[in-house]
Structure formats: C-alpha cells, structure tokens
Amino acid sequence: MNQQLLQQLADGKPHRYQQLSQTLNLTEDQLQNLLTELTQQGIQIEQTETDCIWQPAAELLDHTYLQQILPNNHLIVLPVIDSTNQYLLDHLLQLPNNSVCLAEYQTAGRGRRGRKWISPFAGQVILSFYHCFPQHTQLSGLSLAIGIAVAQALTSLGYQQVQLKWPNDIWLAGKKLGGILIEMKQNPTSFDYQVVIGLGLNIHLPLDTSIDQPIAMLSQQKQVNRNQIIAQLIQQINQVLAQFSTQGLTALLTAWQQYDYFYQKPVKLLLEQQQIHGIAMGINPLGELLLQTEQGNMQTFAIGEISLRAG
C-alpha cells in the first residue's frame, strides 16, 4: 500500500490524477492500480474523469505524535495487517512489555467466539496491547477492567452515555460501539502469562455496512481526533493494568457499576443449552455476572450472552 498516496488523499479534497502522478512519480496506470487497491481495502474513493476524492476525510495514524505522548509503550503502527492481536501473539518473545500494535485496516480481524470484526480503512480504533503477568496472577475479570479503562478514557474526552455490556462490549447511548478480545499464551520458560488485549471501536462506518445489530460511532457525538482518542485509551489502559496487577478487579467494582448498562434491569442470559431470566445485579470480584433469578436466588455466571428482556 502506498502511504504517500494515502497522505495526499486523506484531506478529503479533490486531487487531479495528473498532479498526483507527478507528485508521487507514478504513471497514470500505476496510479489507477493503486486507487483500485485502496478501494478494495474499503476506502471510499469517488472518481471522475479528471480527479478523485476520499470521502469522508480521514485522520491517519500518527506514529510520531503517539510515541511522544506514550514514551513507556513500544508502538507498532501498520497500514494494513491481518490481525493486530495475531501480530503480537506471533512476536511475543521479541517484544517488550506493554507493546501496542495499531493498524488502519484489518483483513482478518476477529471478535468473541470467532466472529469476524468489520473494520473500514481508518474508520476505527484498531488496537492490541501486550502485557505480561506473573504466573500466579488471578486474571479473572481482566476484560471487564479493560472495559472500565475504555469507558473512563472516552468519558474524560467528553463522550456521553458510555456504557459497558458484560462481559466484553463497549456501548454508546444504547448501541454497540466496540468490543474487547483477550487472548493468552504462557511463556515456556518463566510460565508468566503473556496476554494480548484487542480493542476495536467504531469512529466512522459507511451507512451500508452489513452488521446485524444497531451500532454507534464516536463521530455521531462530536468531532473526532482519532490519535488523541488512541493516546488517551492507551494511557488509561496503562493505569488500569497497573491497578489490576496489584488489586485485581476488587478496586474497580464501583467503576463498573457506574457504566453497567444492565444494572438492576430485567435481562435474559443465553447459555449453550438454556436461557435464564432475572435481574442483573452487577458483578463480583472475579468478574462473574450476578443474576437474581425469577425464583429469588442470586446466581453467578462466568460466561453467557446477556440482553434486555422485554416487559
């Protein structure tokens, strides 16, 4: 992918083919081939006989800016990758702790339970964070701690109605904004837990995106500075991971309740073989869902798919 061409088009203004060819030292055929490649990556480029335009204007990842703000994180910034999570998993032994992989576009992004994660070029936060925990660390509830970090970061940037849906989803005003996927390996020598935390958040998606549920985008609430959002997210994840490493989820329970979309609401919990109705009553220190059943019993669940119950 031609990074110089992306930088030329990212301003969202019309660019003449002739001028682009001269600036980038390309033939017109080479330029057209590159434009076709960008379109195949999900970039919305409108073309006329004389010029082309990338709409809406895109803010590309700024490695220099991010590294200046995040000196304690090793940053890998890539235009296109199969999966940022997979990149970190493949390079764990070569990377320092708290390394972060960022990308403009994923060709094989994945969500929970093997679901495909849709990511238009430069239209999302696509971020994976590597952190190493000592082998005896209790990691239950880690995804919830990361959710809290994300909610706190977005709230600090002025976003309203940031919500968390147990166990891995980020919501905005009652619609899904993004999700968290945690994957893990154990170091063969030290037996420490090498954890990769994947985070995806919608910034701007095309209206014809084929997603089977209502979605939210950060751009719907306010003008977005994507690099600023990413910097704030990583800073908050750094803080929460340090807290989680020493105190677990216990110190974050109050924060979870603040953002818990389902707290004290009637819900249904879908398990593999059954469906349970009750009132969601938050989480315990292990990150398990507390559900007051219709029989009045309080039960805990470590897995399941939760949704609001009609009536």
Give an overview of the whole structure.
It is an enzyme of class 6 (ligase). The mean pLDDT is 91. The protein has helices spanning 3-9, 17-24, 28-40, 63-69, 84-90, 142-156, 226-247, 253-259; strands at 15-16, 45-47, 51-54, 75-81, 100-106, 124-133, 162-165, 169-172, 175-186, 193-202, 266-270, 275-283, 289-293, 298-301, 305-308. Strands 4-5-6-10-9-8-7 form a 7-stranded mixed sheet, sandwiched between helices. By secondary structure, the chain is an alpha+beta fold. The protein contains 8 helices and 15 strands. It folds into 3 domains: 3-54, Orthogonal Bundle (Arc Repressor Mutant, subunit A), CATH 1.10.10; 63-258, Bira Bifunctional Protein, Domain 2 (BirA Bifunctional Protein, domain 2); 262-308, SH3 type barrels, CATH 2.30.30. The protein is globular, with a radius of gyration of 21 Å. Helix 6 (142-156) crosses helix 7 (226-247).
